[in-house]
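Support request, please re-run this one:
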Amino acid sequence: MAAPIPTTTPASLIAGDTAKWLLSLADYPADDGWAVAYTLINTAAKIAFSASASGADHAVNVAAASTASWAAGAYQWRATASKSGEVYTVGTGTLTVQPAFSV
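Re-run finished. Output below.
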């Protein structure tokens, strides 16, 4: 049985793990053409990725192969919704990327 998909941006994740969550934005629904993008930034790195539409929701699904290259550390993040040249910040926070254990 698959684990339920979180509905909030995580506070932390492990490099090399799949990053997956679902974002519901009543004012910016995906099925109305709104697109959501995330930017994570700290003094050493800037990471950008987008959500895809899942009905009215925005599904974030960053592959493990992508997060494997993310440097460990604390990042500030912003999520923006955009459509037809309009862009709105829809979330901000802090996310910690924890290092993967080497095998």
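DSSP finds one helix and eight strands in the chain. The radius of gyration is 14 Å.
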